[in-house]
Design the sequence.
């Protein structure tokens, strides 16, 4: 049976920061469970298979400009 | 971990306990040389980590060096209970007046080590304890201080042994107790301790089991005995299920989700936390449940690891349901384990509400965990339900389903 890779957590990222290499670096450094990765030319990528490992630390929310990263609990 | 007899004898010897002038070898020619050195009747003993040597023909008596060589050739090729011998021990045949039993074990109920003594050595102590309880002495002692001679003496005296024998055996039992503590043993046994016709006392056989976790502390001893890290000395080979459990635990560095032991039951266990695994396993059995496995989970494993362990248990043939139970957790997150076990059910195509008989993990991030369990309809309980009560619920549920 195929189930979604992320059952419990999703992360929403505002388009305005998706191609900002400086913010990408900050998010990659901040996340303790490697949910963020840098794509080509520093674009921000979400590593879906790691989403459910999110420990709800909110370090990503703090690292990015206010309101641009949101951690969503899919079970609420 | 268990030691071969020849290693156990060396440990005993180092503790200052008299032993016979034995020799260990892997060749029949060398066995002959040892027998020549002994210059008298000898006993050829197979060195296997298994009981029943005598019955299987692994212990032979020889009057001459040539006979010793011939027996050595036979014994070295003899498989005993699936084990080929590591080598053989060539021992002088003792001229015995009396045999005694000396042992030190850990008493799990009193939570103290206990010295054991019997003046009926050479046979199983369990048999003596059952049929001749007045011939077994027991004396608990503290594991925090050096065992005192007078405790050993009182232990021996309980069996009616007096006089010279009492005086001579006392320091031997006391040294065995000291060895037990210093070498992190779970069992230190001399059976028999022989009183020879010349009046001397010697250890004629020894059995030592050491705490596995003590291997780093006892590195020097293990090196001296030429026991490498690769020699696990487990009682049996790991099963495929158990090896798979180790692989799950090795997935990443976070926490523990492994140490799996396979059993035959139908209730899979995902259990742990500060001794909780043993308590919960026992609790399941107490209420008539049949565990499919033992395992340990703790130290905040990743969701992937918790999921991997739960999947392994769920896929074990014969498992109807799993019980996810821990003691109160502080360094493991309830929500992370909840995510892992629910994910395991869903990825295997099961309904978590059906497959998880009970989820009882109170502690860190429990509110978050309970939200997840609520969403998937899994029955859970908080710390107001004891581990025993939770185990009973799981057993009742699986009984009702059967």
Sequence:
């Amino acid at each position: 049976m195929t189930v979604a890779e992320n059952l419990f957590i999703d992360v929403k990222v505002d388009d305005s920061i998706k191609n900002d290499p400086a913010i990408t670096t900050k998010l990659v450094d901040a996340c303790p469970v490697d949910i963020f990765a840098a794509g080509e030319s520093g674009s921000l990528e979400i590593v879906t298979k790691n989403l459910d490992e999110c420990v709800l630390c909110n370090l990503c929310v703090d690292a990015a400009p206010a309101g641009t990263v949101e951690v969503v609990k899919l079970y609420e | 971990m268990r030691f071969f007899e020849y290693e156990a004898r060396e440990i005993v010897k180092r503790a200052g306990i008299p032993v016979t002038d034995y020799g260990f070898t892997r060749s029949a020619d060398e066995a002959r040389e040892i027998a020549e050195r002994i210059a008298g009747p000898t006993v050829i003993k197979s060195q296997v980590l298994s009981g029943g040597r005598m019955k299987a023909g692994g212990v032979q008596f020889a009057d001459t060096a040539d006979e010793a060589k011939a027996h050595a050739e036979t014994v070295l090729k003899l498989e005993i209970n699936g084990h080929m011998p590591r080598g053989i021990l060539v021992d002088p045949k003792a001229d015995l007046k009396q045999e005694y039993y000396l042992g030190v074990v850990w008493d799990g109920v009193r939570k103290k080590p206990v010295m054991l003594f019997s003046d009926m050595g050479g046979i199983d102590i369990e048999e003596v304890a059952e049929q001749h309880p007045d011939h077994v002495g027991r004396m608990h002692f503290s594991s925090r201080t050096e065992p005192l001679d007078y405790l050993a003496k009182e232990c021996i005296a309980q069996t009616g042994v007096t006089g010279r024998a009492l005086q001579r055996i006392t320091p031997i039992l006391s040294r065995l107790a000291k060895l037990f503590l210093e070498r992190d043993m779970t069992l230190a046994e001399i059976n028999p301790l022989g009183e020879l016709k010349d009046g001397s006392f010697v250890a004629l056989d020894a059995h030592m089991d050491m705490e596995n976790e003590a291997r780093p502390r006892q590195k020097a001893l293990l090196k001296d005995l030429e026991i490498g890290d690769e020699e696990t000395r487990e009682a049996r080979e790991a099963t495929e299920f158990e090896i798979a459990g180790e692989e799950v635990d090795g997935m990443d560095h976070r926490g523990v989700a492994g140490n799996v032991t396979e059993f035959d039951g139908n209730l899979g266990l995902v259990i742990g936390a500060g001794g909780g695994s043993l308590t919960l396993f026992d609790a399941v059995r107490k209420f008539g449940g049949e565990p499919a496995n033992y395992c340990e989970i703790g130290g905040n494993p990743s969701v992937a690891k918790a999921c991997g362990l739960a999947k392994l248990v769920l896929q074990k043939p014969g498992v109807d349901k799993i019980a996810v139970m821990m003691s109160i957790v502080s360094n493991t997150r309830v929500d992370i384990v909840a995510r892992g076990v629910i994910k395991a059910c869903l990825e295997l195509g099961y309904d978590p509400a059906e497959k998880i008989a009970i989820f009882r993990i109170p502690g860190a991030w429990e509110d978050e965990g309970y939200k997840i369990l609520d969403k998937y309809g899994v029955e859970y309980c908080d710390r107001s339900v004891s581990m025993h009560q939770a185990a009973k619920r799981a057993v009742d549920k699986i009984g009702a389903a059967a």
